[in-house]
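Thread title: Can someone regenerate the structure for this chain?

I was given the following input by a collaborator and told the matching C-alpha coordinates would be attached. They weren't. Posting the sequence so someone can regenerate them.
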Amino acid sequence: MWTALTRFREPMTLAGVFTLAAVSLGLRFLPAEVLPAAAAALAAYALGFLLFALAPDTWEWPRRIALVAMACLALLLAWLTPRVGTAQVLLVVWVACAVNVLSPRGVVGAALVLNVAFYLLMVHHRFGAPLTMTLINIGFQALAGLCVYYARRAEDSRDQLALVNADLLATRALLADSARDAERLRVARELHDVAGHKLTAMKLNLRALASDPVFAARDEVRIAQQLSTELLDDIRSVVQALRDARGLDLQTAIRALAAPLPRPALRLAIADGVKVDDPAVAESLLRIVQECLTNAARHANADTLTVSLKNEDTGMHLHIEDDGRLKGRIHEGNGLSGIRERVAALGGEMQLGSSASGGLRLDVRLPA
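Best answer:
Regenerated them for you:
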Protein backbone atom coordinates (compact mmCIF):
# COMPACT_ATOMS: atom_id res chain seq x y z
CA MET A 1 0.00 0.00 0.00
CA TRP A 2 2.78 2.41 0.95
CA THR A 3 4.64 1.56 -2.27
CA ALA A 4 1.56 2.37 -4.35
CA LEU A 5 1.16 5.75 -2.62
CA THR A 6 4.82 6.51 -3.20
CA ARG A 7 4.49 5.70 -6.90
CA PHE A 8 1.35 7.83 -7.16
CA ARG A 9 3.31 10.86 -5.93
CA GLU A 10 5.97 10.46 -8.63
CA PRO A 11 5.99 13.36 -11.16
CA MET A 12 5.35 11.12 -14.19
CA THR A 13 2.31 9.51 -12.57
CA LEU A 14 0.85 12.84 -11.46
CA ALA A 15 1.42 14.27 -14.96
CA GLY A 16 -0.41 11.30 -16.50
CA VAL A 17 -3.36 11.62 -14.12
CA PHE A 18 -3.62 15.36 -14.79
CA THR A 19 -3.49 14.73 -18.56
CA LEU A 20 -6.27 12.13 -18.41
CA ALA A 21 -8.40 14.45 -16.30
CA ALA A 22 -7.90 17.23 -18.84
CA VAL A 23 -8.74 14.88 -21.72
CA SER A 24 -11.98 13.88 -20.03
CA LEU A 25 -13.17 17.48 -20.28
CA GLY A 26 -13.22 17.16 -24.07
CA LEU A 27 -15.84 14.42 -23.92
CA ARG A 28 -18.56 17.02 -23.37
CA PHE A 29 -18.31 17.95 -27.06
CA LEU A 30 -19.28 14.45 -28.18
CA PRO A 31 -22.69 13.52 -29.52
CA ALA A 32 -24.99 11.91 -27.01
CA GLU A 33 -25.06 8.59 -28.87
CA VAL A 34 -21.30 7.96 -28.50
CA LEU A 35 -20.72 9.67 -25.17
CA PRO A 36 -21.38 6.61 -22.92
CA ALA A 37 -19.08 4.34 -24.93
CA ALA A 38 -16.34 6.98 -25.12
CA ALA A 39 -16.58 7.70 -21.37
CA ALA A 40 -16.38 3.99 -20.58
CA ALA A 41 -13.33 3.56 -22.85
CA LEU A 42 -11.57 6.55 -21.28
CA ALA A 43 -12.36 5.28 -17.76
CA ALA A 44 -10.97 1.85 -18.67
CA TYR A 45 -7.85 3.51 -20.10
CA ALA A 46 -7.43 5.47 -16.86
CA LEU A 47 -7.71 2.25 -14.82
CA GLY A 48 -5.13 0.59 -17.04
CA PHE A 49 -2.81 3.55 -16.62
CA LEU A 50 -3.16 3.47 -12.81
CA LEU A 51 -2.49 -0.28 -12.76
CA PHE A 52 0.57 0.22 -14.91
CA ALA A 53 1.88 3.17 -12.88
CA LEU A 54 1.15 1.90 -9.35
CA ALA A 55 1.91 -1.82 -9.73
CA PRO A 56 5.34 -2.97 -8.48
CA ASP A 57 8.01 -3.77 -11.03
CA THR A 58 7.70 -7.48 -10.28
CA TRP A 59 4.20 -7.45 -11.84
CA GLU A 60 5.74 -7.63 -15.27
CA TRP A 61 2.96 -9.42 -17.15
CA PRO A 62 0.03 -7.52 -15.56
CA ARG A 63 1.77 -4.28 -16.54
CA ARG A 64 2.30 -5.49 -20.11
CA ILE A 65 -1.34 -6.59 -20.36
CA ALA A 66 -2.42 -3.16 -19.10
CA LEU A 67 -0.21 -1.58 -21.76
CA VAL A 68 -1.83 -3.63 -24.53
CA ALA A 69 -5.29 -2.77 -23.22
CA MET A 70 -4.41 0.93 -23.16
CA ALA A 71 -3.29 0.79 -26.81
CA CYS A 72 -6.54 -0.90 -27.88
CA LEU A 73 -8.64 1.59 -25.91
CA ALA A 74 -6.78 4.54 -27.46
CA LEU A 75 -7.57 3.21 -30.95
CA LEU A 76 -11.19 2.60 -29.88
CA LEU A 77 -11.46 6.23 -28.85
CA ALA A 78 -9.92 7.24 -32.17
CA TRP A 79 -12.76 5.32 -33.82
CA LEU A 80 -15.41 6.87 -31.58
CA THR A 81 -14.06 10.43 -31.39
CA PRO A 82 -12.04 11.12 -34.55
CA ARG A 83 -12.46 14.92 -34.36
CA VAL A 84 -12.04 15.57 -30.63
CA GLY A 85 -8.35 14.61 -30.42
CA THR A 86 -8.67 12.37 -27.38
CA ALA A 87 -6.87 9.42 -28.96
CA GLN A 88 -3.84 11.49 -29.98
CA VAL A 89 -3.19 12.51 -26.38
CA LEU A 90 -3.71 8.97 -25.11
CA LEU A 91 -1.20 7.64 -27.62
CA VAL A 92 1.38 10.13 -26.33
CA VAL A 93 0.72 8.90 -22.77
CA TRP A 94 0.97 5.31 -24.02
CA VAL A 95 4.42 5.86 -25.54
CA ALA A 96 5.62 7.48 -22.30
CA CYS A 97 4.45 4.37 -20.41
CA ALA A 98 5.84 1.89 -22.94
CA VAL A 99 9.37 3.27 -22.57
CA ASN A 100 9.39 1.92 -19.00
CA VAL A 101 8.91 -1.73 -19.95
CA LEU A 102 9.83 -2.16 -23.62
CA SER A 103 13.17 -1.89 -25.35
CA PRO A 104 13.74 1.17 -27.57
CA ARG A 105 13.21 -0.96 -30.68
CA GLY A 106 10.05 -2.43 -29.18
CA VAL A 107 8.66 1.03 -28.43
CA VAL A 108 9.45 2.28 -31.95
CA GLY A 109 7.89 -0.79 -33.58
CA ALA A 110 4.74 -0.71 -31.45
CA ALA A 111 4.34 3.05 -31.93
CA LEU A 112 4.61 2.68 -35.72
CA VAL A 113 1.90 -0.01 -35.72
CA LEU A 114 -0.39 2.17 -33.60
CA ASN A 115 0.17 5.22 -35.77
CA VAL A 116 -0.51 3.26 -38.96
CA ALA A 117 -3.76 2.05 -37.39
CA PHE A 118 -4.57 5.61 -36.33
CA TYR A 119 -3.88 6.86 -39.86
CA LEU A 120 -6.19 4.23 -41.35
CA LEU A 121 -8.93 5.20 -38.92
CA MET A 122 -8.60 8.85 -39.89
CA VAL A 123 -8.78 7.92 -43.58
CA HIS A 124 -11.87 5.83 -42.88
CA HIS A 125 -13.55 8.76 -41.15
CA ARG A 126 -12.51 11.08 -44.00
CA PHE A 127 -10.55 13.31 -41.64
CA GLY A 128 -8.81 16.17 -43.42
CA ALA A 129 -5.03 15.74 -43.84
CA PRO A 130 -4.72 12.41 -41.96
CA LEU A 131 -1.04 12.05 -42.81
CA THR A 132 -0.19 15.47 -41.41
CA MET A 133 -2.11 14.70 -38.22
CA THR A 134 -0.35 11.35 -37.85
CA LEU A 135 3.09 12.91 -38.35
CA ILE A 136 2.33 15.58 -35.74
CA ASN A 137 1.26 12.82 -33.35
CA ILE A 138 4.51 10.94 -33.99
CA GLY A 139 6.47 14.08 -33.15
CA PHE A 140 4.74 14.52 -29.79
CA GLN A 141 5.09 10.81 -29.05
CA ALA A 142 8.80 10.90 -29.83
CA LEU A 143 9.26 13.91 -27.57
CA ALA A 144 7.42 12.22 -24.68
CA GLY A 145 9.27 8.94 -25.19
CA LEU A 146 12.69 10.57 -25.30
CA CYS A 147 11.97 12.64 -22.18
CA VAL A 148 10.97 9.54 -20.20
CA TYR A 149 13.84 7.49 -21.62
CA TYR A 150 16.52 9.98 -20.66
CA ALA A 151 14.86 10.64 -17.29
CA ARG A 152 15.03 6.92 -16.53
CA ARG A 153 18.66 6.74 -17.67
CA ALA A 154 19.52 9.67 -15.42
CA GLU A 155 17.73 8.00 -12.52
CA ASP A 156 19.49 4.70 -13.13
CA SER A 157 22.84 6.46 -13.35
CA ARG A 158 22.14 8.28 -10.10
CA ASP A 159 21.21 5.02 -8.35
CA GLN A 160 24.27 3.28 -9.76
CA LEU A 161 26.48 6.14 -8.61
CA ALA A 162 24.95 5.96 -5.13
CA LEU A 163 25.65 2.21 -4.98
CA VAL A 164 29.23 2.69 -6.14
CA ASN A 165 29.70 5.43 -3.56
CA ALA A 166 28.29 3.16 -0.84
CA ASP A 167 30.62 0.40 -1.99
CA LEU A 168 33.58 2.77 -1.75
CA LEU A 169 32.53 3.94 1.73
CA ALA A 170 32.17 0.35 2.94
CA THR A 171 35.53 -0.63 1.45
CA ARG A 172 37.14 2.47 2.96
CA ALA A 173 35.74 1.54 6.37
CA LEU A 174 37.26 -1.94 6.10
CA LEU A 175 40.59 -0.53 4.92
CA ALA A 176 40.65 1.97 7.78
CA ASP A 177 39.94 -0.79 10.28
CA SER A 178 42.59 -2.97 8.69
CA ALA A 179 45.11 -0.12 8.92
CA ARG A 180 44.21 0.47 12.59
CA ASP A 181 44.61 -3.23 13.32
CA ALA A 182 48.00 -3.26 11.61
CA GLU A 183 49.08 -0.24 13.66
CA ARG A 184 47.86 -1.81 16.90
CA LEU A 185 49.77 -4.98 16.05
CA ARG A 186 52.93 -2.97 15.30
CA VAL A 187 52.68 -1.10 18.61
CA ALA A 188 52.11 -4.37 20.47
CA ARG A 189 55.18 -5.90 18.88
CA GLU A 190 57.27 -2.83 19.66
CA LEU A 191 56.19 -2.85 23.30
CA HIS A 192 56.84 -6.55 23.61
CA ASP A 193 60.16 -6.60 21.77
CA VAL A 194 61.73 -3.33 22.96
CA ALA A 195 60.24 -2.30 26.30
CA GLY A 196 59.69 -5.87 27.44
CA HIS A 197 63.26 -6.86 26.54
CA LYS A 198 64.79 -3.90 28.37
CA LEU A 199 62.62 -4.42 31.45
CA THR A 200 63.61 -8.06 31.56
CA ALA A 201 67.28 -7.03 31.40
CA MET A 202 66.68 -4.51 34.18
CA LYS A 203 65.06 -7.20 36.35
CA LEU A 204 68.07 -9.44 35.90
CA ASN A 205 70.40 -6.64 36.88
CA LEU A 206 68.32 -5.80 39.96
CA ARG A 207 68.32 -9.45 40.92
CA ALA A 208 72.08 -9.45 40.66
CA LEU A 209 72.23 -6.37 42.88
CA ALA A 210 69.89 -7.97 45.39
CA SER A 211 72.23 -10.97 45.68
CA ASP A 212 75.14 -8.69 46.61
CA PRO A 213 75.43 -8.40 50.44
CA VAL A 214 76.21 -4.72 50.11
CA PHE A 215 72.86 -3.92 48.43
CA ALA A 216 70.65 -6.80 49.60
CA ALA A 217 69.38 -4.95 52.65
CA ARG A 218 68.58 -1.71 50.84
CA ASP A 219 64.87 -0.92 50.42
CA GLU A 220 65.55 0.92 47.17
CA VAL A 221 66.69 -2.27 45.46
CA ARG A 222 63.69 -4.21 46.72
CA ILE A 223 61.26 -1.50 45.61
CA ALA A 224 62.96 -1.25 42.19
CA GLN A 225 62.60 -5.02 41.77
CA GLN A 226 58.93 -4.85 42.68
CA LEU A 227 58.23 -1.92 40.33
CA SER A 228 60.05 -3.55 37.42
CA THR A 229 58.04 -6.74 37.89
CA GLU A 230 54.75 -4.83 38.01
CA LEU A 231 55.72 -2.71 34.99
CA LEU A 232 56.60 -5.81 32.96
CA ASP A 233 53.26 -7.38 33.88
CA ASP A 234 51.46 -4.19 32.86
CA ILE A 235 53.21 -4.10 29.49
CA ARG A 236 52.32 -7.72 28.88
CA SER A 237 48.67 -6.92 29.69
CA VAL A 238 48.68 -3.95 27.32
CA VAL A 239 50.24 -6.03 24.54
CA GLN A 240 47.65 -8.76 25.04
CA ALA A 241 44.82 -6.19 25.04
CA LEU A 242 46.11 -4.66 21.81
CA ARG A 243 46.19 -8.08 20.18
CA ASP A 244 42.73 -9.00 21.50
CA ALA A 245 41.27 -5.68 20.25
CA ARG A 246 41.91 -6.66 16.64
CA GLY A 247 38.84 -7.09 14.48
CA LEU A 248 37.23 -5.29 11.56
CA ASP A 249 34.09 -3.19 12.04
CA LEU A 250 31.71 -5.12 9.79
CA GLN A 251 28.64 -3.42 11.19
CA THR A 252 29.66 0.04 9.97
CA ALA A 253 30.70 -1.27 6.56
CA ILE A 254 27.45 -3.21 6.00
CA ARG A 255 25.29 -0.27 7.05
CA ALA A 256 27.21 1.95 4.63
CA LEU A 257 26.25 -0.46 1.84
CA ALA A 258 22.55 -0.33 2.69
CA ALA A 259 22.35 3.43 3.33
CA PRO A 260 21.64 4.62 -0.26
CA LEU A 261 18.96 2.00 -0.94
CA PRO A 262 15.41 3.23 -0.29
CA ARG A 263 14.31 -0.39 -0.13
CA PRO A 264 14.79 -2.88 1.48
CA ALA A 265 15.43 -1.69 5.01
CA LEU A 266 18.35 -3.45 6.68
CA ARG A 267 17.84 -5.30 9.97
CA LEU A 268 21.37 -6.17 11.12
CA ALA A 269 22.34 -8.25 14.16
CA ILE A 270 25.98 -9.12 14.81
CA ALA A 271 26.60 -11.12 17.98
CA ASP A 272 28.98 -9.68 20.57
CA GLY A 273 31.48 -12.50 20.27
CA VAL A 274 31.93 -12.18 16.52
CA LYS A 275 35.36 -10.88 15.50
CA VAL A 276 36.77 -10.92 11.96
CA ASP A 277 40.51 -10.34 11.69
CA ASP A 278 41.13 -11.41 8.10
CA PRO A 279 40.36 -8.64 5.55
CA ALA A 280 39.63 -11.28 2.88
CA VAL A 281 36.92 -12.86 5.04
CA ALA A 282 35.48 -9.44 5.89
CA GLU A 283 35.36 -8.45 2.22
CA SER A 284 33.64 -11.73 1.28
CA LEU A 285 30.99 -11.23 3.97
CA LEU A 286 30.49 -7.67 2.76
CA ARG A 287 30.03 -8.74 -0.88
CA ILE A 288 27.58 -11.48 0.12
CA VAL A 289 25.38 -8.99 1.96
CA GLN A 290 25.70 -6.54 -0.94
CA GLU A 291 24.48 -9.13 -3.45
CA CYS A 292 21.55 -10.09 -1.21
CA LEU A 293 20.57 -6.42 -0.86
CA THR A 294 20.57 -6.03 -4.65
CA ASN A 295 18.56 -9.21 -5.21
CA ALA A 296 16.00 -8.27 -2.55
CA ALA A 297 15.42 -4.86 -4.14
CA ARG A 298 15.52 -5.93 -7.79
CA HIS A 299 13.93 -9.39 -7.89
CA ALA A 300 11.95 -9.99 -4.68
CA ASN A 301 10.48 -6.49 -4.14
CA ALA A 302 11.29 -6.91 -0.45
CA ASP A 303 10.72 -4.29 2.23
CA THR A 304 13.15 -5.69 4.82
CA LEU A 305 16.36 -7.68 4.66
CA THR A 306 17.41 -9.44 7.87
CA VAL A 307 21.12 -10.17 8.35
CA SER A 308 22.52 -11.98 11.38
CA LEU A 309 26.10 -13.04 12.07
CA LYS A 310 27.08 -15.21 15.01
CA ASN A 311 29.65 -17.72 16.16
CA GLU A 312 28.94 -21.43 16.34
CA ASP A 313 30.96 -24.41 17.54
CA THR A 314 32.21 -25.11 14.03
CA GLY A 315 32.85 -21.52 13.00
CA MET A 316 30.88 -18.49 11.83
CA HIS A 317 27.24 -18.51 10.65
CA LEU A 318 25.83 -15.78 8.37
CA HIS A 319 22.04 -15.89 7.93
CA ILE A 320 20.26 -13.61 5.45
CA GLU A 321 16.61 -13.56 4.44
CA ASP A 322 14.16 -11.04 2.97
CA ASP A 323 10.39 -10.63 3.24
CA GLY A 324 9.81 -10.36 -0.51
CA ARG A 325 8.38 -12.88 -2.93
CA LEU A 326 10.45 -14.48 -5.67
CA LYS A 327 8.90 -15.39 -8.99
CA GLY A 328 9.19 -19.13 -9.60
CA ARG A 329 12.02 -21.33 -8.39
CA ILE A 330 15.33 -19.99 -7.14
CA HIS A 331 17.73 -19.66 -10.05
CA GLU A 332 21.43 -19.24 -9.38
CA GLY A 333 22.51 -16.42 -11.65
CA ASN A 334 25.86 -14.71 -11.69
CA GLY A 335 25.30 -13.10 -8.29
CA LEU A 336 24.45 -16.26 -6.35
CA SER A 337 27.10 -18.23 -8.23
CA GLY A 338 29.63 -15.57 -7.20
CA ILE A 339 28.57 -15.96 -3.56
CA ARG A 340 29.00 -19.74 -3.77
CA GLU A 341 32.48 -19.31 -5.25
CA ARG A 342 33.50 -16.87 -2.49
CA VAL A 343 32.26 -19.23 0.21
CA ALA A 344 34.01 -22.21 -1.37
CA ALA A 345 37.28 -20.25 -1.57
CA LEU A 346 37.08 -19.71 2.21
CA GLY A 347 36.38 -23.40 2.84
CA GLY A 348 32.78 -22.84 3.87
CA GLU A 349 29.38 -24.00 2.67
CA MET A 350 26.26 -22.22 1.44
CA GLN A 351 22.59 -23.22 1.56
CA LEU A 352 19.75 -21.57 -0.37
CA GLY A 353 16.08 -21.68 0.49
CA SER A 354 12.85 -19.70 0.69
CA SER A 355 11.85 -17.46 3.57
CA ALA A 356 8.43 -17.60 5.21
CA SER A 357 7.09 -14.94 2.85
CA GLY A 358 8.53 -16.56 -0.26
CA GLY A 359 11.70 -14.51 -0.48
CA LEU A 360 15.30 -15.67 -0.49
CA ARG A 361 16.95 -17.29 2.53
CA LEU A 362 20.72 -17.75 2.56
CA ASP A 363 22.85 -19.55 5.14
CA VAL A 364 26.63 -19.34 4.96
CA ARG A 365 28.88 -21.23 7.36
CA LEU A 366 32.58 -20.48 7.46
CA PRO A 367 35.15 -22.56 9.38
CA ALA A 368 36.72 -21.12 12.49
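The chain has three domains: 2-128, 176-244, 250-367.
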